[in-house]
Structure formats: C-alpha cells, structure tokens
Specification:
Distance between the termini: 35 Å
Radius of gyration: 14 Å
Mean pLDDT: 96
Shape: globular
Largest sheet: 5 strands, mixed
Strand content: 15-25%
Oligomer: single chain
Number of strands: 5
Length: 138
C-alpha cells in the first residue's frame, strides 16, 4: 500500500468520527507488514476524559484481531478546515499506545502526520524518544 492510499484510508475513517463536542474528526490507519490495514476514528463522550483517539481505537481493533507484530506505518489525519492546516501528530497517549504495539513486533513505524497541504514523515521513535515499553517490565 502506498503512502497516499494509507492516508486516504485514514481520511475515510475520519468520516465515521463521533466528535459532537470538539467537531474535530480524526482518522488513523495502521499498515502492517502482511499488508493488513486497520483504521480507527475518534470517539468522544459527554464525560470528556472518556473519549478515545483515532490511533487508540485502531490499535485496539488491531489487537482484537490478533495483529501484534509488523506495524510498519501509521497515517493520522484531522479536519482540513480547522486550525492552521498544519500536520497533526499523535497525542502523547497515542504515541505510547502505538509504541506498545510497535515494541511487540520490534518495529519503529513511520508516522505520516497529515495537514491540509503537507505531510510530515517521522519515525515513532522520534515522536517518543526514550519510550517506556514492554521490555522495561522483564
């Protein structure tokens, strides 16, 4: 799957967002080495702290489907009509959740941070240096 196709999968996922409070739909798409793609979208809650980010939803779906290794790439998209149009990155919590999945398979996936007119490509280890992960518990 190409970078463009993965980004389109994330944008399509964002269309299913449940974001009535922020009106900020986010989509995420995870690409695995076997070609599997798992998507997620943000799910808000009236008790704001209980909302789920798109990346966390996608990771939970992947784990539920038994995908625990081979994470190679992640695309994250937000609305093009909000903010300054700059590429968005996973929040701190999502970086940690993505790191857990990546660590299980020994990968350092590329993260495509999508903005209105720009895509920043960065390794997860650059977004979350000195990450805490499963190896710390051995």
């Amino acid at each position: 799957m190409s970078e463009t196709e993965l980004i389109e999968a994330a944008k399509l996922a964002a269309q299913s967002s449940y974001s009535p409070y922020s009106n900020y739909p986010v989509g995420a798409a995870l690409l695995f080495a076997d070609g599997s793609v798992v998507t997620g979208t943000n799910v808000e809650n009236a008790s704001y702290g209980l909302g789920l980010c798109a990346e966390t939803v996608a990771v939970a779906k992947a784990m539920a489907d038994g995908l625990r290794s081979g994470l190679t790439a992640v695309a994250v998209t937000g609305p093009s009509d909000r903010g300054d149009g700059a590429p968005i990155t996973p929040c701190g919590r999502c970086r940690q959740v993505l790191n857990e999945l990546a660590a299980l398979g020994g990968t350092d996936p590329v993260i495509y941070c999508v903005g209105e007119n720009q895509v920043n490509e960065v390794q997860l280890s650059q977004l979350l240096p000195h990450a805490f992960g499963p190896a710390h518990l051995d």
